[in-house]
Design brief:
Length: 194
Amino acid sequence: MGKKLESSFKNMVLVLFLVTLVSSAAVGVVNTLTSGLIEKVKIEKQVQAIRAVVPEFDNDPMADTRTVETPDGGTLQFYEAKKGGNLVGTAIKTYTNNGFGGKIWLMVGFNPDGTIYNYSVLEHKETPGLGSKMDTWFVKGAKGDITGKNPGTTGLQVSKDGGNVDAITAATISSRAFLDAVNRAAKALAENAQ
């Protein structure tokens, strides 16, 4: 049998240091092993979002990417979708800081004429059952349908603010934030049309 360590302050600090060192090393190894996979999954999720928000295309929109700065210092990603060399739509990764739960990230697809083709919610922290309904509330045929509308430079607003888009029931702040992200993308598209 081995000698039992005496319970002293010095021994407790040493054991705690060793446990922390081993734990930190393990976290570092796991992070290194998974970082490439996480990045790959993130890119695939983005490609799927692009496919969901623009008409069918035959190019690689990830290769035809532009970054545009917004007046408030943020950046938007533009992904041009082409078929047979002709532009069929532009997907824009956009955001707003005005969500009830913080930042909201969307992928919004526009037809060449500036009308909204579709959108995809990429990330949010809105209230479950309320603001989180944005992924189904604003789609074609739903009560707050924004597809086919052209926000242009004037933008879309909820009906409570004098606009013509129905807000999510009991989630007006989230609805305003969602439309803010869409309007940010539409304004950037209008100002940066090629």
